[in-house]
């Protein structure tokens, strides 16, 4: 059963990626790239987008983690989102991390990289003109898991990291996230008993960052009940967790190529950021 789910996940996530045509890709060129981590011959980088006049005043930041089951994926998945929120006044950052297809890596390596990226961003906050009290981690599917992991998972820290710097973001925006890796959740055949340390669902604690989850009601991989259970646990520790349901939508519904859904999710994201005081309401 787990193998069938894994194959299904691969097929669905491949079909849901935003693989931008070359002319579209050129629209979303980052203003800066930075290497945040080197593992042997592998260099992992960030693509950074700056808003206008960002040097005059520190800005909030949104850090994006692409999906792909920790097996593959494209750093460009959230490039349209990065450009959109750049125009809204955020520093936006796309994160590259190790995946099985390219690096023969494990899901645990991906979590380690996500935490390294967040620590690097905070460490470089002054240079990047980021308000480090307003950093949002965002991701889709397995990227949603990584975003949540930076907030909730204590294990899997790189020996090269300064662990005195917390990787924890101030808020989370999660698209159909892989948040339950337990025996009934996704990835258990790869994670095993480590799920107790790896699964966001099983590591929710007090002061978990305010979270919004955007999910299709016909998601083939992430049951609506899983998301509802997550909210119940967040409620029990006194943390904000909003759920936005998208009727009849499937896994990957939020990507740029799904124009109507993409625009709808931006509206919901904007309201969440307004409620947090990170974004001003349009006049």
TrEMBL record:
Hydrolase among keywords: yes
Domain named Dienelactone hydrolase: which ranges?
Answer: 201-264
Which parts pass through the membrane? none
List the GO molecular function terms.
triacylglycerol lipase activity
Keyword entries, A-Z: Hydrolase, Signal
Q: Where is the BD-FAE-like domain?
A: 46-180
Q: Per its UniProt entry, which superkingdom is the organism in? A: Bacteria
The region annotated as signal peptide is 1-21
Q: One Pfam match, by short name? A: BD-FAE
By its UniProt entry, which InterPro entries does this protein fall under? Answer: AB_hydrolase_fold, BD-FAE-like_dom, Dienelactn_hydro, GDXG_lipolytic_enzyme
Similarity remark: Belongs to the 'GDXG' lipolytic enzyme family.
Please identify the protein, giving its name as recorded: Alpha/beta hydrolase
Q: Which lineage?
A: Bacteria, Pseudomonadati, Bacteroidota, Bacteroidia, Marinilabiliales
